[in-house]
Structure formats: structure tokens, C-alpha cells
Amino acid sequence: MTNRPFTIALLAGSALAPATALAAPTAVAATAATTYRGPSVAMRWGNVSVTIKVSKHKVVGVSATYPTERPRSVFINTIAVPRLRSETLSAQRASINLVSGATLTSRAFISSLSAALTAAHV
Predict the structure, then answer these.
(1) Using an 8 Å Cβ cutoff, are 83 and 54 in contact?
(2) SS (H, E, C) 28-84
(3) Tens of pLDDT along 34-79?
(4) How many beta carbons lie within 10 A of that of residue 85, not counting itself?
(5) Over the chain, what is the mean pLDDT?
(6) Phi, psi (degrees; rounded to nearest 5) at 53
(7) How far are the Cα atoms of 9, 18, 20, 121 from residue 12, in angstroms, in the given order?
């Protein structure tokens, strides 16, 4: 069975028709998020840099650049960075848990994140 949109037409003067005309819907202005980038923090296997998006004093987005030159770095960081991102969005601050097995990435991430949050006054 396919879901199809349906329309109910109300005849003017009927008991179901509204007594007054409804106002046209108004567009809600979208609040633009401001982007802040933390410094590139060097660690043993490369650099980590965190970028945050802030809207109304709340972190609404987190992304990071991280080393991908070695297969082991790719493996570790593709697991660690999403967890660190999730922790950041949940905590709304730099006091987050390190990811086991990715201590260097975690510390570099937190250092860059801390600077970005300071710049954003969050």
C-alpha cells in the first residue's frame, strides 16, 4: 500500500469551514552557526585539528582533521574521532573521556577543541 497525501476541501459557509481566514505561514529565519577552528596540534603520528559550529552558545557540529598516512592511523582515528565528536556534542565542553587505544589522538583532539571552545566563548 502506498502512502499518498490527501487534501480536505472545506466549502465556505459550511459548518466545518473556519470563520476567519487563516494567516499565511511565515518563514522562520534560520540561525546561522558560526564556525571556529582550533589549532593544529602535533602528535607522534601527525596533526589533529578540530572545527566546531556554534549556534546560540551551543555546539551544534564538530569535525576534525587527523592523520591518515598510515593504515593503522586510519583504523584508529576512524573509530576514535566519531566517539570524541559524540562526547563533545553531549558534554558541550572539552572535559570529555579519552578513547582507549587512541590516547594521542584523544589528547590532541581535546587540546584543539579546548582552544576552539575558548574562541567561541562556550
Answers:
(1) no
(2) CCCCCCEEEECCCEEECCEEEEEEEEEECCEEEEEEEECCCCCHHHHHHHHHHHHHH
(3) 999 999 999 999 999 999 999 999 999 999 999 999 999 999 999 9
(4) 19
(5) 82
(6) -115, 130
(7) 10, 8, 10, 55
Task: Tell the residue number behind the cell numbers 552557526, with chain if given.
Answer: 33
Residue type, 67: P
Which amino acid, one-letter code, is at 111?
Answer: S
Helix 103-120 to helix 71-91 angle, to the nearest 10 degrees?
Answer: 40
State the Cα–Cα distance between residues 95 and 93, nearest whole angstrom. Answer: 6
Sign of the alpha-carbon dihedral angle for 16, 20, 21, 26: negative
Question: Residues 6 or more apart from 60 whose CB is under 8 A from it?
Answer: 33, 53, 54, 89
CB–CB of 16/80 below 8 Å? no
